[in-house]
Design brief:
Number of domains: 1
Largest sheet: none
Distance between the termini: 105 Å
Number of strands: 0
Shape: elongated
Structural class: mainly alpha
Order of helices and strands: HHH
Number of helices: 3
Strand content: under 5%
Length: about 130
């Protein structure tokens, strides 16, 4: 007599692929490393010029834009990986806080750009 074995489908937690980005890594890179790298690379280490003032303002705006994108990416990763509701709420609030802080930093960068351009104009008028 022959027996036929039928395996029941396995139920359990679906594992993410190894390449699936982790939220902590995304947040570390986009909230800290990239904005600081942009600020360090595009900073003016010499006398103030109009070009350096604009370059530093754009570095600030670009860094904050990356931070907003990273916070939203961490929220999307949380939702897509079907985490629990408190985790989704936490990363949603984190995205709102990062976005609000980034908008304020961009506004400050615009004001600082105007101040630096006024300084450059004052230095040019004296010389």
């Amino acid at each position: 007599m022959s027996t036929t074995r039928i395996d029941a489908p396995r139920q359990g937690v679906a594992h993410q692929p190894r390449w699936f980005p982790r939220r902590r890594l995304v947040l570390l890179v986009t909230l800290i490393l990239v904005p600081f790298a942009l600020a360090a690379v595009l900073n003016s280490y010499g006398p103030p010029t109009a070009e350096s003032a604009v370059r530093m303002a754009f570095a600030t705006v670009a860094g904050q834009t990356v931070a907003i994108g990273g916070a939203l990416a961490a929220l999307v990763i949380t939702i897509v990986s079907r985490r629990n509701l408190p985790g989704i709420v936490f990363f949603g609030l984190l995205a709102v806080i990062v976005t609000a802080n980034a908008v304020m930093a961009m506004t400050g960068a615009g004001q600082l750009l105007l101040d630096r351009l006024d300084l450059v104009a004052a230095i040019a008028a004296e010389g």
